[in-house]
Amino acid sequence: MDFNEKLGTLIFNLGTMNSMAVAFSGGVDSGLLLKVAHGILGQQVLAVIINTPALPRRDLQDALDFVKELRVNYRVIEADPLQIEGFAENRSDRCYLCKRDLFRRVWAVAEEHGISWVADGSNCDDLNDDRPGMQALRELDVVSPLIEAQLSKAEIREMARRMQLKIWDKPAAACLASRFAYGQKISLEKLQQVEAAETYLSDLGFRQIRVRSHDNDARIEVAPEERTKICDQQMMDAINEKFKTLGFAHASMDLGGYRCGLAGKSKKD
Q1: What is the number of domains present in the chain?
Q2: Is 210 a residue whose pLDDT tops 80?
Q3: What is the DSSP string of 12-32?
Q4: Nearest Cα to 110, choosing from 17, 29, 184, 36?
Q5: CA 189 from chain center: how many Å?
Q6: Distance between CA 177 and CA 188 in Å, rounded?
Q7: Where are the strands (E) in the chain, listed by range?
Q8: Pick from 134, 72, 76: which is nearest to 100 by CA?
Q9: 162, 185, 210 - which closes a domain
Q10: What does the pLDDT read at residue 130?
Q11: Residue ending a domain, choose from 120, 139, 162
Q12: Which residues contact 180 (CB under 8 A, 6 or more apart)?
């Protein structure tokens, strides 16, 4: 299918549903889905924003700003994945355990509002990655309309740009728990430490950022085209000093830059 056919398929499929709860993260994928679904189903669409310690505060604020500007009905629900058995221990099925818990909560909200469908913003590119959470979505009958319409990340961004969504070029984001290699324990303090480090780098002007936590050390990834900026001596000194104040013993840079895929046993989100 070409671009317009895929958009038509998305619109047609959404039109067959009488009501929908969209798990909204504040990112471009679920943002586009929410925009199109709201245009078709109107008040029968509910955006469900899940506030957890693994969600960066800026992403939470982005999500709130988006739903308010769109004037779509929304609910914010609280959840703490650290209370899920196996999550804090960072087992290899951590993502599955978390998705299963969170989408059960989304279904509970949907049923409370008499909503028939729960949807997420997964796209076709996600099928090429190692994403254990996809299994939980299938088990819970969560639909992924963007996948059903065979939409890639690039096509979703282009659709969002044409629809003039402010988040169309927002960098890819991921749960803060993805910054820790499997087997390395996760705590609230560790999540907050990583978030503070990434927020600092964002304030310095970097867009695509990951701070990987390895015990007491930080490994910084930025977009390949942003690597020369971070290699400035004054910049490196400032970052090193800041990271020490955040509790990291050492800070290093991944010379390859940010990239999706796998690195050892740690998913590269």
Answers
A1: 2
A2: yes
A3: HHHHT-S-EEEE--SSHHHHH
A4: 17
A5: 20
A6: 10
A7: 20-23, 45-51, 73-78, 117-119, 209-214, 217-222, 250-253, 261-263, 266-268
A8: 134
A9: 162
A10: 64
A11: 162
A12: 90, 186, 190, 212, 213, 266
Whether 43 and 114 have beta carbons less than 8 Å apart is answered as no
Q: Answer whether residue 167 is part of any domain.
A: no
What's the chain's length in residues? 269
Phi and psi torsions of 73, nearest 5°: -65, 140
| Count of Cβ atoms closer than 10 Å to residue 76 Cβ | 14
The half-sphere exposure of 47 on its side-chain side, counting CA atoms within 13 A, is 30
Tell me the C-alpha distance between 156 and 94, whole Å: 27
Same domain, 57 and 135: yes
Q: How many CB atoms lie within 10 A of CB 8?
A: 13
pLDDT digits (tens, 9 = 90+) for 91-128: 999 999 999 999 999 999 999 999 999 999 999 988 87
Q: Which residues fall within 8 angstroms of residue 177, CB to CB, at 6 or more apart?
A: 54, 81, 87, 90, 94, 95, 98, 186, 191
Residues 144 and 246 in one domain: no
Domain boundaries, position 257: 176-268
**Smallest Cα–Cα separation from 253: which of 240, 241, 242, 262?**
240
- Phi/psi class of residue 267: alpha, beta or left (left: φ > 0; alpha: ψ in -120 to 50)? beta
DSSP 43: G
Report the distance separating Cα 235 and Cα 205, nearest Å.
11
> What are the pLDDT digits (tens) for 122-178?
999 888 766 778 899 999 999 999 999 999 999 999 999 999 999 999 998 889 999
Amino acid symbol at 260: C
**Identity of the residue numbered 241:** E
Q: Are residues 54 and 16 in the same domain?
A: yes
Both tokens of 151, joined, read 């939409």
**pTM for the whole thing?**
0.91
Residue 170 included in any domain: no
CA angle, corner 98, sides to 47 and 140, nearest 5? 65
